[in-house]
Design brief:
The structure holds two protein chains of two kinds. By secondary structure, chain A is mostly helical. Chain A is built from 15 helices and no strands. At the A-B interface, helix 1, helix 6, helix 7, helix 10 and helix 12 of A face helix 5, helix 6, helix 9, helix 10 and helix 11 of B.
Chain lengths: 326, 300
């Protein structure tokens, strides 16, 4: 196990390094003068000089790369062009909002999906299944932002039940992040974007749960439980469901990594101030340092969560032999 | 049966294949539904210029004034946009862009994924290690953010969408093809081909490849959907090709021009529904064929 863990961690570092390098290449090899992409014309002469030196933009590409890696290790991502703050500070402001939105939606989606999937496995065949499965597939097929638009038009613009965007009402000022978190206004604004994501995400756990449940229900220990005379419901929920949860748990970890970056469109539709929206705005306004920082953060979360999912799978499932090569 | 495949048990005759496809559609209502949606979209795309009642880019006038924000009516089934364009005509023309993006990207994904899956599964060794490693890296790149950054750094348009789909989505196909090839490689007929002196390339491309093509096509039908969703998201975020008429561009237009606050459902509901139908078609086909390709799961 320890060897497996070390191997995975080494692999993680390697993938992170490649992704980091790819990002460097992507942002440097675009057409035009690369230094212009990191130095806004609006900066004062002194700031320009300081940044030029700090990021080694006056040196060769190879040296720039080494400086870039060193800065990254120190958590230094540069200055945003437009907002005049450090990229790290802007990302730190946005990240909690994305994490809250993602966690709330994922938990709601998986809670619903697991129960509904188990129920569908329990009630196999018939009308319920004929309606439920195509609907679950349909929610995965619909563009996320379109689901958001439908909810916005129906529940915010036309009925006024929910706010139309942002994280706080106009004029409302939250002193600190903690104060914002406990304000009702914040959670009120969270409902629609979270509902959109939940709708979009629930299809996967539902279908996965149902499929693995049906597989588990054929196992010998289930036959045994039935022979003991347990009720069908008790067999399904207490014996089968526990064992079917494993792939769902893995999907949850993968989903967490993927949605931090995948929230881009939902955050844009609802003007939710998270990482995805930061990235979109930075890219749209050619704020390259901020765009690079946001992209790196999203990619890091994805890579780390992929590893976590892999390790969790190996740790939870005794059948996965960690010594074996995949 | 072409002459060069004679004696190879792996290659079925065209006739048998057609029969298998026929049987498959008869037994799988989901797949029939999916295939009908595709058929309908292809028909609409082919006859788009005859079906569309108006020029999708023309600003329609009502007397002297631009016919903006018209509701549903017999003249304009889905009303008009904020710039007086007919929504139904745009919807109909959108099928062409959807099919172009979807098919090109899916073909690219399937070609790359199948080739790399085949190489890594059949050759094993360092080829397998390199390809698995590449797949791991690609899986570490977030899809939408990557597309956005690439579009911003090069130039926005469908080219970037197709490239991103091809470059980032092949690992799923490759992984499944690899697993399939690993089991096919051990079959007796591959051994027989080897003994009769077939080259490695010949065994891979003439004997093994046809066996995994149905599986590849299955992943292709899902990839069409991802490509269309990717195009829609890129357009929605402002990185689409503003000159083409696509469902994503329509949604972006509606979102940016107060369709939501005006409650113009006739404008923003149809394009999203069209995207959903087309992506769903791919899911339905692949779901139906899962039972055909993985008989072990037949119970589910």
């Amino acid at each position: 196990m320890a060897r497996h863990l070390l191997g995975r961690l080494g692999h993680l570092v390697l993938v992170l390094w490649v992704v980091t390098t790819l990002t460097f290449v992507m942002f440097r090899l675009m057409p035009g003068d690369p230094t212009l992409n990191f130095l806004s014309p609006s900066f004062s002469q002194e700031t320009r000089a300081a940044l030029l030196k700090g990021f080694g933009l006056d040196r060769s590409l190879g040296e720039q790369y080494l400086i870039y890696l060193r800065n990254l290790l120190h958590g230094e991502l540069g200055q945003s062009f437009l907002q005049g703050k450090s990229v790290v500070a802007l990302l730190a402001e946005a990240l909690p909002n994305t994490i809250i939105l993602t966690l709330v939606s994922l938990c709601a989606a998986y809670a619903f999906g697991i129960v509904a999937g188990a129920f569908l496995a329990f009630r196999r065949g018939g009308v319920v299944e004929a309606v439920a499965i195509p609907s679950a597939l349909a929610t995965r097929a619909a563009p996320e932002f379109w689901l958001g638009m439908l909810l916005l038009a129906g529940l915010a613009f036309q009925t006024g039940l929910f706010p139309t965007g942002g994280a706080l009402s106009p004029g409302a000022e939250a002193g600190s992040f903690g104060a914002m978190l406990i304000s009702r206004d914040y959670w009120w604004h969270l409902i629609l974007p979270a509902l959109t994501l939940t709708l979009y995400l629930q299809g996967l756990p539902l279908l996965l749960m149902r499929a693995t449940m049906l597989e588990v229900l054929n196992d010998e220990f289930i036959v045994m439980a039935r022979m003991k005379g347990l009720s069908r419901w008790s067999v399904v929920m207490r014996h089968a469901a526990r064992n079917a949860l494993l792939p769902v748990a893995t999907a949850f970890a993968l989903g967490l990594g993927a949605s931090v970056g995948g929230n881009v469109v939902v955050e844009t539709v609802f003007a939710w101030p998270g990482i995805g929206r930061v990235l979109v705005q930075a890219v749209q306004s050619a704020d390259y340092p901020l765009a690079q920082g946001a992209f790196l953060l999203i990619a890091f979360v994805l890579v780390v969560m992929n590893t976590v999912a892999d390790l969790a799978y190996a740790a939870l499932d005794p059948r996965v032999s960690v010594g074996a090569q995949r | 049966m072409p002459r060069w495949t004679r004696g190879c048990p792996s290659v079925r005759s065209v006739n048998a294949m057609m029969q298998a496809i026929g049987r498959f559609f008869r037994s799988e209502p989901f797949a029939i539904a999916g295939a009908s949606i595709y058929a309908a979209i292809v028909l609409v795309a082919v006859f788009a210029d005859r079906l569309a009642p108006y020029d999708p880019k023309a600003m329609l006038k009502n007397g002297n004034r631009v016919a903006r924000y018209l509701p549903m009516s017999p003249e304009h089934w889905f009303g008009t946009t904020s710039s007086g364009r007919d929504v139904l005509s745009q919807l109909i023309w959108g099928t062409r862009s959807a099919l172009t993006v979807g098919l090109t990207a899916a073909l690219a994904v399937v070609a790359i994924g199948t080739l790399l899956g085949l190489l890594s599964g059949y050759l094993g060794g360092w080829a397998d290690r390199v390809i698995t490693w590449l797949a791991d890296i690609v899986l570490g790149l977030p899809f939408l953010p990557f597309m956005l950054v690439l579009a911003a750094l090069t130039h926005p348009g469908t080219g970037v969408v197709i490239f991103t789909v091809a470059a980032l989505l092949w690992p799923n196909t490759a992984r499944v093809i690899r697993a399939q090839v690993l089991s096919l490689r051990e079959r007796a007929w591959v051994e027989a081909a080897r003994v009769t002196g077939c080259s490695t390339a010949r065994i891979m491309f003439v004997h093994v490849l046809p066996q995994v093509l149905p599986l590849a096509a299955l992943y292709g039908s899902v990839a069409i959907g991802w490509a269309i969703l990717a195009e829609a998201s890129a357009s929605f975020l402002g990185f689409g090709d503003p000159d083409t008429i696509s469902w994503g561009v329509m949604l972006q237009d509606a979102y940016a021009n107060q369709a939501l606050s005006r409650g113009a459902w006739n404008w923003f509901a149809p394009p999203g529904a069209a995207i959903m139908a087309m992506v769903l078609a791919g899911f339905l086909i692949s779901r139906g064929s899962e039972k055909l390709l993985f008989p072990k799961l037949a119970g589910s």
